[in-house]
Amino acid sequence: MSTETPSPTTIDIGIGGMTCASCVMRVEKALKKVPGVDSATVNLATESARIAVHDAGMEARLRRAVRDAGYEPLAPSAAIDAEDASAWAGFGPVGIGLALCLPLVLPMAGDLFGKDWMLPALWQFLLATPVQFILGARFYKAGWHALLARTGNMDLLVALGTSAGWGLSMWLWLSFLWGGAAEHAAHGMAVMEPHLYFESSAVVVTLVLLGKWLETRTKRQTTSAIRALHGLRPDTAHLIGRDGEVDVPVAEVLVGDKLVVKPGERFPVDGALLEGRTQVDESMLTGEPLPVTKEVGAKLTGGSINGEGRVVLQVRAVGVDTVLSSIIRLVEDAQAAKAPIQRLVDQVSAVFVPVVLVIALVTLLGWYFTGNSFEVALIHAVAVLVIACPCALGLATPAAIMAGTGVAAKFGILIKDAQALEVAHTVNVVAFDKTGTLTVGQPRLTALVPVGLANDEALLLAAGLQSGSEHPLARAVLQVAKDKALTVPAPTDVQAVAGRGTQGKVGERTLLLGSLRWMAELGVDMAPVAAQAADLQAGGATVSAMAEQQAGGVKLLALLAFADEPKPGAKEALATLRDRGIQTVMISGDNRGAAEAMAKRLGLDAKDVLAEVLPGDKAAKVAALKAGGKVVAMVGDGVNDAPALAAADVGMAMANPNGGGTDVAMHAAGITLMRGDPLLVAAALDISRRTVAKIRQNLFWAFAYNAAGIPLAALGYLSPVVAGAAMALSSVSVMTNALLLKRWTPEKGGK
Questions:
Q1: N or C: which end of the chain has fewer CB within 10 A?
Q2: Percent of the chain, pLDDT > 90?
Q3: CA dihedral 178, 181, 186, 187 (to 10 degrees)
Q4: The model's pTM
Q5: Is 605 one of the annotated active-site residues of the chain?
Q6: How far apart are CA 22 and CA 389, in angstroms?
Q7: Is residue 319 a contact partner of residue 345, using CB atoms and an 8 Å limit?
Q8: Which of the following is catalytic: 155, 257, 270, 433?
Q9: In 355-497, which ranges are E strands?
């Protein structure tokens, strides 16, 4: 008896109190220890965890694990919801710290002018102690939890360093009070208070708090893409009910309901236009600013803006099933994911704090045993502890990923996972599906060559057989029949023959309509139209044939030729990629003549055309392109492209305005292009390159900062105050560098 393994489910938890890469490692470790957890990914920038489990009822246990690790479990969207806070939210403790520190640092300014403004030791104690133990309580709490878990984090380093400075000051002051002051008085000497370091500990605590506050402000900007998407969802809808039009919460809308949408309002959910005609702004979905005309029957997407007309829509999808929810989920998944490069950071973070503690101890002993006072040795050790805080290290990768995926979403490029983002910049071959991706995907019937039939009779048979099909070629045949006002008969026993065509009955006739290759397999005599078929193919047409199953075999009835047009911008998009040194390949199920004719119009060489490829063989063609170490991106728009998208190093699903399986392609792809513009391919590769560059810059500076700062502090070139300022600056600079990505726009031509 076999037992089915339950499929994994995902639980998201917000986490408060994380400060550095070591915190991330600690929370991940705590979550992975919970029985039933498959994997856990913690993101410092989004302050959240994504946990894969087999039991959806484990959330309470996971939250307890987060709390036991010393952190605060929050709502998954806590970082996004905190959005409404003012620009100065959370500044209170920082402001108090700055006010208390100002009198402590004024003597430093006085020294520059030869003035002695040093405060009495008691005043220094009274000003510094609240900063150390009240404002700095968070460092002690989090550091204590880290010690209990036998790990280290930024808070532990700050707590140890500032406590050492405060404790040294207390020891020097009390030693003076208990011995030095009395001895000076007994000898009639002036009482000179010792130099204390209260200002160092207080200023370091305040600077770290200031750095964290600035970092939090900057972090809010990285989540702006998600917040903007959430803001597209209206709270209420105008429902047409039994008593007329009533306003109801969107959460109560059901599939099948009829809703009124007034001019200028956002569509609350996905639906189909029942009444009216309007222009719709879909820029939130596609990045395309021009409004789109919508007639009765057209698809409407929740979150898009209704133009000038009052319309009625019938609800097709609500809640998590809407397109907007899918977009939000894709962006959230990308921003919550870890890029492969982050593994290096995680490995470093796991040993970073223990190594720093050892370096600080070596610094202390080294200075002390080389003839310096314990006071001097301790101050240098404190500087090492303070400057080594790994905040910048933990933020370097996620901050860049959030900024990059956010700005890409704004222009209609949805990056599903961080791995796709990281790999895309190395792509050196881009393979395009032809129909619907490089071409408009709405072929026209350009020629009908009947054999033994009248033209309209052949058209009626072809249209009847394909009247239930959504295939682009079938729609082209039906459109001609509609234009001629012909009454199309209904077919029976219709079957799709994968990669070949369609068969079924129209009236009493058993018909087959499909590729010339299929006709050859069936033994159909194509001799009467062979020359015409060759001429049509040479002109770039896709040629199909219709035949009838008769007692004596399969007899040819007609030849049908279809032509598609290249998409606007397709030729420029391919040229842009080639200018960047990227090979472009077109994959088509058409015969070679038709495929090469279209390739010529697109500016492609014949050697870069893979023709007569069955849908099931596309993945194998992509695998062949990958041979020899090539990094391949596959661009497609339909169900039959899904295996090839999954087989490529980077799959790009191009949204098809006519439907036709785009959702399936989106699930198989790492990147989704929300409008059918081939120029977006170059733009997607460009934002990948720029994001990875930011990640590398951030990691370089984070590593370089610690690699340079720790030795300088150990050698005595940095005071604790300067070290604290440098540490705060490093985190803010990493976040600011990542935010520069928000200025990115796809250049004209995608270059």
A1: N
A2: 23
A3: 140
A4: 0.67
A5: no
A6: 10
A7: no
A8: 433
A9: 413-415, 429-433, 444-450, 491-497
